[in-house]
Each structure stands twice: as structure tokens, then as C-alpha cells.
Amino acid sequence: MKVIQKLKCQRVSVFQKNRHALLDGVKLFMLISWSPLSSQAAPVIPPFNPAELQPGGATTTAVKSSLLNPLANLSLVRQEQFYIGRSFYRSPWVQAPSITTDRDGLGPLFNMRSCVACHANGGRGLPPLSDGVAMNSMLFRLSIPEPGEHGALKPEPLYGDQLQALGISLTYNKGMAESGSRAQQRILGEAQVHVTYTPQSGHYADGSSWELLSPDYRITALSYGAMREDVLLSPRVAQQQVGLGLLAAIPERDIVQGADSEDVNQDGISGRPNWVWDVQQQKIVLGRFGHKANQPTILQQSAAAFRGDLGITNRLFPEENCMPDQHCEAAPSGADPKTGVEIPDKFLTAVDFFVKALGVPTRRKPQDAQVQQGRNLFYQSGCPACHTPSFTTGDDADLPELNQQTIWPYTDLLLHDMGAGLADQRPDFAATGQEWRTPPLWAIGLMKRTTGAVRYLHDGRARSIAEAILWHGGEGKTARTAFMQLSADEREALVAFVKDL
Questions:
Q1: 41 contacts 320 by C-beta, under 8 angstroms
Q2: Helix axes 345-356, 76-90, angle to 10 degrees
Q3: pLDDT the model gives residue 462
Q4: What does the pLDDT look like over 419-455, one tens digit per residue?
Q5: 3-class DSSP state of 291
Q6: Contacts with 212 (C-beta within 8 Å, 6 or more apart), sequence order
Q7: Three-class secondary structure of residue 251 per DSSP
Q8: CA trace torsion 312, 315, 317, 320 (10° rounding)
């Protein structure tokens, strides 16, 4: 099976009404749709706000070598809970039965053995950088184009809703029938993924050349038979975890009021909220997290990852992620007989608290002349139309440290059509096959330091921020065009600003 995946990111143009909290809470409304090729006036560039120095407000941490540090204003009492959650985030899970009962239950199908294996130092994952390299911090979403429960599509009948590369061994279990059946000896990982990249080249307005890499994925060694011919697949690298608690604390009304699904103001930007199923509340709510904003809460995102990536059942997702024809019934379970799930709720809650309490690193050199020039170009190019600079958080009774913080995440948390080049053609609740959530930009410049390599966009195809911008299509085309019109020094300045966020 050969699957060619095209990419997508965020798009840019201009501010929309009621979008950006700037200058000590004063809203700046930019109502002008601007194109670098038009005769319209350029958008207003707000003066530098000293609050930009602290992207997470009072929660901002000074540590930059890792993204696994607590909110700067987290009390000592709460820090104890934070570090308990971090231990379960960092430590590997093992196969049941084990004397390590708090950490057993891995599999029977899984991708990695720990959360941090995909989110190195809390940062982004990486795609296989060449053919033959394992898919360690990247996964494939699967579905078929038929309506499922609560607005989602149905999972692929043989392989479920996620491709899992690894399976557990069953050979050591006492009392197992020696029939020679491979299903009784081990649970097979579902498939292998191979990636090759096809170069695409072009030139900036000043004549400088650029090159992009278009990924081509081949899925081989399918252990349980062929997938349905109409299967929809979407590659996803792990996202960085920093600042998720602050994003969760943004009032829903502030996100929804930034939407303009019909492009009423005719600026070419049609941000839309994704409406998804909340397992706890048993109703449709606003999605905030994930590449397509398909998760409503940090807890549900974490619980889904435990089940999908590690094979660890929990109270939100108590069933193994194993389809009927994969014969996982022979696999041992690490479930507690009383609760019927493998991770105790107190540990799932601790991980949820840990992720929610991750602090955002401070800016590195925001008043550097090149960075300030890049800031002006960022606004002039229309990038804030999707990458909303600032919000003010509301109130969170569980974690008051997040309350009433002026934050600078550079995202609107909305869906945008990024064009055919980035499309995965796989709908996800209200998101179409060409829509992606605007990813936050804060701490993006620390990827090399935290992960050891640099790759951007939902499938990691972009080797630089410049490449990520050049992949922008659809609603992002105007910003891409503006970037291509800049001189080399101006492009470097804009990139320097983004890296400093």
C-alpha cells in the first residue's frame, strides 16, 4: 500500500475583530485585509508590549533546556503532585504480569513504552528521517469514510483508529497452549512504515532558491491482512506539551468569537472551531488540543494517548485498542480486578495535573534588533490573522495559578483550510481533510535544544521555519506570498522572531 501524504499548517492574513488582547488588556481591532500585492494600507503594528517578555504571564519559567518544568508560580505543595505525575510521564511501562504493578499492562498493541519517548523533554516528535528508520515519535490515524459515533468516522475494521507498530510477547505465559499459532505466541505489531521524500524547488522574489520535501509513505508488512481500499490515513508527529494548561484556561467565548467560518469580513481567513465528543461529559464540546483540535481536554488527550500509544486502559477508555480479528484475548492484562483498568485513576489524574502545570519558557532575546524587525514583518505579513498573539486566561478552580494570566501563545486554536499541499484528506469531527488547528508558536525555537533535531508541521516534513511557511496554502497563501516577497535579510529576521517566541 502506498500513501502519499500532503501537508498543512497555518495560514495568515490579518487580524479579525475581537481577536487579540494587546497592550495591558486593551483590544486592538485590525479590520483591514491586506495583501502585499494590493494597494490597500498595511495593517497597524502594535508597539512592543513588555508583557511579551513573559509568554506565560506569572507562570513563565526561566528554564530553557527542557520543557518538563513546572509553572513558575506553582506552590511547593502542588509541586509534589507535579513531580509524581512527571514520574509516570517519563518512566517506561512494562508488560503484565509484573512485580511493578503500578506500571504494568503495556500493550498488547502499542507504539512506545513511555510518554517521553514520543515527547522528548516535552517537545515535538520526529518523523523517520530516512527509509528504514523506525517510526518512534510519529503515528498514523486511521478511519474509513463512514459515519461513526458522535460525529467521528468509523475506525478501519482490521486495524482500528491508529496504526501501532509493536506488540507484546506471549511465549512466557504458563499454561498457554502450544499450538504453534502465532496469535498464541505473540501479538504482532500491525505494520511497518517507510518514508521517502521528493524534492520540490522554487525561488523567492529576490532570486534565492528554496527546496521543500514532499513525503511519500509506504505501509508494508501488514500483519492482519490488507486494509480497506478506501482507508483514510493521517501521519502525525507528537506535539510539544508546553503551556497546555494555559490554553485550557482560555475562555471558550474568546476562542469562538475569533471564528469567521463564512469569512464575513472578506479577509480570506475562515477560522472555525472544531466540535468534538467529550467522554466525561457525554456531549459535544469545543475541541482545543491535537493537530485538528480533536480533543476537548488535557485529561481526555492524555487518557487517549495511554490507550492508543501505550495500550494502557483507563477510566475514560477502558477497552483495549485491539480489533476482533487481532485475537488479543490471549494477552495478559494489567487491570486492577476492582476497577477493571490498568492505570489507577490517581496516577492518570497526576499525569493530567503534570501536563496542565507545565510552564512556558521565557523569551530569549525579544528586544534584539533583528528580532524586533522580524516582529514588525510578522505583523505586516498578516501572520497574526491565525497566529493570535495574546489571550487572557479565565479562572480554573483546579489550578488557580493559571487564573487571569496574559499569555502569548500565537494561536487562535481554530481550524483553517491550509490547501491541498498540506491536506491529509481525513476528516476529524468538524475538521475537513484540508483543515488543521493553528499550532501555538511559543517555545518553537527550543526544538533543537530539547529534541536534538528540528522538524516542523503535522508530519515533520519541514526542516526549517522558512520551509513550514512555504508549505502554507489555502488560507495561508497570502502570508506565504508576503514571505516570498521579502529580502533574504528580512526573511531571516522574521524567522528569528518566530524562533524567539
A1: no
A2: 110
A3: 97
A4: 999 999 999 999 999 999 999 999 999 998 888 889 9
A5: coil
A6: 199, 200, 201, 461, 462, 467, 470, 471
A7: coil
A8: 40
Burial class (CB in 10 A: 0-12, 13-18, 19+), 356: buried
pLDDT score for 7: 30
Residue position matching grid coordinates 477560522: 271
Residue-wise over 357-377: b if at least 16 C-beta within 10 A, else e? bbbbbbbeebeeebbbbbbeb
Could you tell me the three cell numbers for 216?
A: 511519500
Q: What is the DSSP letter of 166?
A: E
Estimate to the nearest angstrom the gap between the alpha carbon of 128 and the chain centroid.
17
Distance in angstroms (rounded) separating the CA atoms of residues 501 and 495: 10
As a residue count, the chain comes to: 501
Of 14, 17, 41, 13, the closest CA to residue 28 belongs to: 17
Residue with cell string 506569572: 58
Amino acid residing at 6: K
Q: Which helix (H) or strand (E) holds 201?
A: strand 192-203
- C-alpha angle with apex 363: 481 to 271, nearest 5 degrees? 40
Across the beta sheet with 192-203, the strand order is: 2-4, 209-220, 192-203
Place of cell 524586533: 372
Could you read off the pLDDT of 279-290 as tens digits, one per residue? 999 999 999 999
Rounded to an integer, what distance in angstroms lies between the CA atom of residue 409 and that of residue 445? 13
How far is C-alpha 347 from the geometric centre of its chain's CA atoms? Answer: 23
171 close to 148: Cβ distance less than 8 angstroms = no
Give all strands (DSSP E) within 269-405, no chain letters. Answer: 274-278, 283-287, 391-392
Mean pLDDT of 292-310: 97
CA distances from 181 to 153, 170, 171, 186, 439 (A): 33, 11, 11, 9, 46
> For the residues of 81-127, what is the DSSP string, one character each?
HHHHHHHHHHSPPBPSS-S-GGGB---SEES-SSSTTTSGGG-----
pTM as predicted: 0.89
Q: How far is CA 26 from CA 21, 180, 356, 408, in A?
A: 6, 71, 27, 14
Q: Which three cell numbers stand for residue 476?
A: 495561508
Q: In 229-280, where do the E strands start and end? A: 232-237, 274-278
